[in-house]
């Protein structure tokens, strides 16, 4: 119920960001990614003629940032630069004001006094501070201002890191927390963790402790930063940046500052003391990526090739390769996470010693912080997953390794058990999470529901799994909707994946379901077709089998368009090759904003054979105005496919034509499946089965001639290779409508699919294509033959 003492909070439609440094500009960019207009303000530099210099510079840096801060460069137009002297009054039309200025209490307090006078009385006010308590910042402000104030701590880079910590004070109104939670979740696509107003909040409190302790355990075990990163990255279910690369990305000065503050506020048993070599690095200005060098340094060798070297902390010199090889990590690679963690936790030698000590420290500290940084263990797990890129949080990791075994190891390490672990020991419990409940910091149990649909949790109910194979499953996701989930390595598309889509269509009709969703929650939607199978058939001259395989693939992708029920595809991350072709044929697409989608078959000497070539020609032709020539549509399709263009976001996928204007971009990847289900249910009433088109106009031989002319020029200029020419000619024949066709003649979708299949088979039989496929499988990189 709305507090009658305060006016209702308006929807957040415009935001002011104060502070145009790296973080402020990146926050503004992400707001713009979500379609939100932003005012970006900073101070006036007396030596610059342009009073908005800093804000404009912040936008330019965000445009040049790598990884890219903007999902689409044109979104920068949503940001209006300004300065705090001339434009502070303009924040009066903003519904949310967030600061990202210097981490100095007096600077923030002075700013809030000015903001209170300029902002409207219904605006939410937030600080992005990573360490200064929120309550201290608003001392002296009015009760109304304090009631609308809440910490909003983004993790850098805001576009890519999922976590948004919200830190209400004792004065923050509940509806402010609720409104910003929903806005952050649904509009900005963030994972929301509500943290207590304590130093370091949740993720940095636990994460920085882990980094500090890792340095000590590295020295004790006699390892190097590169060796530590080899066993604390993906093999441990952590981010690719692992431990010391993460420190470089965060900034060593920031870690030093946060660690010093946390040491000041923490008890005697919380050791945030950084080793001397770390202080020496910061003293010399070695601060990580921002200074050009940290634990790792990027440079050029004598041939101009980029090389990365690693710091020897004992000598202060950069020596050796930036990546270290680990036999332990290699032996565990590719195994399920639980097996990898078990192998790391029980390993012999320095690597095992380091992992046990580091993990035990992280378990002990997370349990100690439970109830202090947050009253919810799931929030602590989620903070580490969403802020630091862990696959599982500390409490989930303890469950995988065995809670009671971990407790025994913590005690053996000489650490006194926090109250939570003592209660777990006394009860003999092996799990923090139960069916619909979770353990509280006090050791009791309370109801718990995941913040979004999680397929692995859903499938614990065996009645929800309709069919299952090694590489794919059919799952009932409720409300009369079935889902096809792929769960193979890279979700490469083979027999299991195709057969399950076909079976799902039968189940929808036989059991009276409303429709079908194609989605998964793996690392990628799909990296494409099963290349080893294609190469094997080609080398064995098994052309009848390959022809049948391609027909089946085409029939399965197009079944998403031509079934008697609605089919919605929800891709995320990589949707390449065949994964892109499945996406193209859905009745609707609910795409994760982070979508790297493209028809990349030319890289292995093929063309899209699952309807991708047909679909792009059809789409671009349909966009032409009556009377317009066909050539621009053919050229656009040829350029997209022939250059293997991959979108860098779902927004760019729309611009490229890979997604339709009517398709939905979902900022929060965890909400894709629920949004896809909603679209199935919206389409189902009165759904009429579409029929294949018979009226696609083509250019015939004129298209082949135009494409050949362009290809010749590209080859002469050295942009493409001889074999690129061979592949391009096959692509041109499909886009032309086939041999013997004339300009303006109309063909069917099936005719174009047949041409695709013929071109695919022709190319698969050539030595150049087989060399490209083999090279890709061996190195993961395209061959330029």
From TrEMBL:
Domain 3-hydroxyacyl-CoA dehydrogenase NAD binding: start-end pairs: 14-197
Keywords of this entry: NAD, Oxidoreductase
Top-rank lineage group of the source organism: Bacteria
Gene Ontology biological process terms in this record: fatty acid metabolic process
GO MF annotation list: (3S)-3-hydroxyacyl-CoA dehydrogenase (NAD+) activity; NAD+ binding
InterPro entries: 3-OHacyl-CoA_DH_NAD-bd, 3HC_DH_C, 6-PGluconate_DH-like_C_sf, ClpP/crotonase-like_dom_sf, ECH_dom, NAD(P)-bd_dom_sf
Catalyzed reactions: a (3S)-3-hydroxyacyl-CoA + NAD(+) = a 3-oxoacyl-CoA + NADH + H(+)
Domain 3-hydroxyacyl-CoA dehydrogenase C-terminal: 200-297
Stretches assigned to the Enoyl-CoA hydratase/isomerase domain: 487-613
Entry keyword annotation includes Repeat: no
Pfam families in UniProt: 3HCDH, 3HCDH_N, ECH_2
PANTHER family: 3-HYDROXYACYL-COA DEHYDROGENASE FAMILY PROTEIN (PTHR48075), 3-HYDROXYACYL-COA DEHYDROGENASE-RELATED (PTHR48075:SF7)
Name assigned to this protein: 3-hydroxyacyl-CoA dehydrogenase NAD-binding protein
